[in-house]
Amino acid sequence: MDTKFLFRTKGGSLVAQKELPLCPVETTLMLISDRWVVLILRDLLTGTKRFGELKKSLAGISQKVLTKKLRDMESNGLLTRQVYPEVPPRVEYTLTDIGESLKPILGAMFDWGMDYKEKNHSPSNAAVAALGAALH
């Protein structure tokens, strides 16, 4: 049986109403099982980013898909979108406390991936080491 989930902003206004699975593992998968969502989380765990920075970091993602993923993540309470009244407009994305709480999960994914790569003789590099430090 599904349960109702009402997500509210810090100010108390309703952001989204969702049907969440009863199983917490299934709920987590529903929110972060998409490749792009996990990679966006990875990038935002190192700090606030602008749209262009995310686009550049996520090789192969289209502008349309990135826009949709960011909107979905915002409506799910994983990140906030800050628009600055400038010309050209500046938009920044930052993880919420809920988004930040996924850090141990991504850290575990990083560790598992490193172990897998090492067992298959895949060398790592300094950039990967720096990412590992950010995820722990």
Automatic annotation (TrEMBL):
<protein>
    <submittedName>
        <fullName>Helix-turn-helix transcriptional regulator</fullName>
    </submittedName>
</protein>
<keyword id="KW-0804">Transcription</keyword>
<dbReference type="InterPro" id="IPR011991">
    <property type="entry name" value="ArsR-like_HTH"/>
</dbReference>
<dbReference type="InterPro" id="IPR036390">
    <property type="entry name" value="WH_DNA-bd_sf"/>
</dbReference>
<keyword id="KW-0805">Transcription regulation</keyword>
<dbReference type="InterPro" id="IPR036388">
    <property type="entry name" value="WH-like_DNA-bd_sf"/>
</dbReference>
<dbReference type="Pfam" id="PF01638">
    <property type="entry name" value="HxlR"/>
</dbReference>
<feature type="domain" description="HTH hxlR-type">
    <location>
        <begin position="23"/>
        <end position="121"/>
    </location>
</feature>
<dbReference type="InterPro" id="IPR002577">
    <property type="entry name" value="HTH_HxlR"/>
</dbReference>
<dbReference type="GO" id="GO:0003677">
    <property type="term" value="F:DNA binding"/>
</dbReference>
<keyword id="KW-0238">DNA-binding</keyword>
